[in-house]
Amino acid sequence: MSRGRVDVRTDLEEVFRGNYARVVAVAARVLGSRDQAEDVAQEVFLSFGRSSVPADEAGGWLTVAATHTALNVLRSGRRRSAREEVAGDGPTVAPDVAELVITREERSAVRAALGRLPHKQAAALVLRHSGLSYAEVAAALDMSPGSVGTTVRRAESVLLKELNRHASPE
């Protein structure tokens, strides 16, 4: 082996083929962008390739890694958006696409509010709504299974408060 070279896991291709779609779906659910989700998936699989996670635990590990990575992208995107808003006016909206814009704004508001949640609450909410069981969420976030429901409910409550707090008065 040459200096600086990292061996590739022999199970990487199999794990990738079996989990790529789910990793992208979880990241896309958080980010709302397939392109960004695919970037997250690439980063997650690169991390997995360097890890010593057993192949039979890969699915859960990858789902959690996708959630955390997507939440980090969401948070960094929020900071970038704030900088861009200060830099200049946003795009003008044509009246015939108003409904599309409202839907996008609502999704954007939910993602921004999700990005303001404490990381563990946001991760629990995303993982639970991605189809993981309470036990799987608990294992992924190193929590007791009994506290997952409370954490998810609390996250939903905080998310609603964040949405209401940042809602524009009409």
Automatic annotation (TrEMBL):
Residues 16-80 form the RNA polymerase sigma-70 region domain. The keyword Transcription applies. SUPFAM superfamilies: Sigma2 domain of RNA polymerase sigma factors, Sigma3 and sigma4 domains of RNA polymerase sigma factors. Keywords: DNA-binding, Sigma factor, Transcription, Transcription regulation. InterPro entries: RNA_pol_sigma-70-like (IPR039425), RNA_pol_sigma-70_dom (IPR014284), RNA_pol_sigma70_r2 (IPR007627), RNA_pol_sigma70_r4_t2 (IPR013249), RNA_pol_sigma_r2 (IPR013325), RNA_pol_sigma_r3/r4-like (IPR013324), WH-like_DNA-bd_sf (IPR036388). The keyword DNA-binding applies. Pfam families: Sigma70_r2, Sigma70_r4_2. PANTHER family: RNA POLYMERASE ECF-TYPE SIGMA FACTO, RNA POLYMERASE SIGMA FACTOR HI_1459-RELATED. Belongs to the sigma-70 factor family. ECF subfamily. This is Sigma-70 family RNA polymerase sigma factor. It comes from Blastococcus deserti.
